[in-house]
Amino acid sequence: MTVKTPLPYPLDSLKTLELLRSLGEPVLLDSGQPDSLKRFGRFDILSAAPKLLVRYDETGLSIREGGLWRSQASDPFAYIETLLELLDHSDQQLPFTGGLIGHWSYDLGRVVEKLPTNAEADIDFPWMQVGLYLWAIVIDHQLKQSWLVSQPDCSKHLLKQLEKTLCNPLSKDPEDSESAFQLTSDWQSNMSREVYGEALDRIDQYIHAGDCYQINYSQRFSSQYTGDPWQGYKQLRKRAPTPFSAFIEYDKGTVLSFSPERFVEISEQGEVETRPIKGTRPRGATSTEDQALADELASAPKDRTENLMIVDLLRNDLSRACTPGSVKVPEIFAIESYPNVHHLVSSVTGKLASGQSPIRLLKSAFPGGSITGAPKVRAMEIIDELEPQRRSIYCGSIGYISATGRMDTSICIRTLICQQGQIHCWAGGGIVADSDTEDEYQETLNKVSNLLSALNKTTD
Fold it and tell me: Of 414, 413, 402, 410, which is closest to residue 450 (Cα–Cα)?
């Protein structure tokens, strides 16, 4: 049986993670509370020191256990499914009771589908990396409870070390240390405005030729930085509290994610939900202007069409692993508002079919249709042709898969990678037949302007 130890509430997840980082491979799945959407931001999940790490990239599958790496010929999805079979599945009262936490990059779609290799792979980052975590701190902001939960075979020495760590406050505030995060150069896009326009012209040709209905096209912004990415995460969290935020620290780099979008959730009863975002407007300068922009988005034919295309695609993706007839669309064209933008969001639900599993559903729907286009495979081929560099983690997924069968994952939008003094951030949008190039270009800026400006290089 899993062991649950109550902890104080409220428990500050940011200060708690600072206590855990020294254990190695720390992860924070951050609900953004108290400032993000409370409808979705209920749980914070923290852990570190996984029993093993599973990494997949172009060279294949690697597993680290006991400090040693070994290679194994295996499908990455199939392998991580075998790990969950080794855990205790009995306690379903908490969303995570031990299991897998990590990321699945957009590039992992190459395992699912055969794709071309036109775009440059210039970021050395795993296509997938997940840890098998045998313990976690779970903070429930709805019930106002905090727990330390652990699997039966979790190291007793580690648990004692953890209890000791949680009882010892930090000796100094890290923000006062020499590790303060700072950009040392201006943000630069990987394409000019002219190149962006040429790509959209080519997409328009593909659409009118019947190759596709919609393409999610993106640009990448890059800069140089010094300091600790964790301090950067805390800076950005103040500007962009979102219900699917995450901080993950690897030897290959650090992920700072402020996603507002759920990819796939599975409850303990096998209920499935995905919440695609398609349609964006900036926030207004006044309450009147702000409401007008939200109303315009809610009724805009172009955005509703774009959203509906992806809803249909995701209905098809979920149907591959859900009980026939169970896939529904209970919510469509809803407005969700964040500090910098309004989004048009829909919900697609289903019931996981007998014999299926969370990981099989994840694979069947990967990568998320809201960030590829339709039809999915042809859209991904066009993306690889027209985007100059591969997306890496952008438009992939971050989340957990618990031993109990519960799963919750995000779409990696509003996500940054810090690696060897370089930081990258992406923004894109769905391009359809009646897209306006200038509007689409501005939309990409609207989506990440609050993140980029929050980290902008200071001047002397």
Answer: 414
| Angle subtended at Cα 379 by Cα 378 and Cα 382, rounded to the nearest 5 degrees | 90
Task: Please state the rounded mean pLDDT for residues 433-437.
Answer: 94
* pLDDT attached to residue 459: 42
Given 278, 351, 363, 376, which residue is catalytic? 278
| Residue-level length of the chain | 460
Which pTM value belongs to this model?
A: 0.95
Residue 31 CB neighbour total at 10 angstroms:
25
Answer whether 31's CB lies under 8 Å from 125's CB: no
Q: Residue 11's pLDDT is what?
A: 92
Residue from 25, 249, 261, 387 carrying the catalytic annotation:
261
The strand pair at 128-133 and 52-57 is best described as: antiparallel
How many whole angstroms separate alpha carbon 152 and alpha carbon 379? 45
Q: How far apart are CA 65 and CA 86, in angstroms?
A: 15
Mean pLDDT comparison of 22-26, 83-87, 383-387, highest-scoring range: 383-387
261 is catalytic: yes
Q: What is the mean pLDDT of residues 301-310?
A: 93
Q: Is 172 a catalytic residue?
A: no
What whole-number distance in Å separates Cα of residue 288 and Cα of residue 397? 36
Instruction: With beta carbons less than 8 A apart as the criterion, state whether 94 and 143 touch.
Output: no
**Would you state the torsion angle of the CA atoms of residues 33, 34, 37, 38, taken in this order, to the nearest 10 degrees?**
90
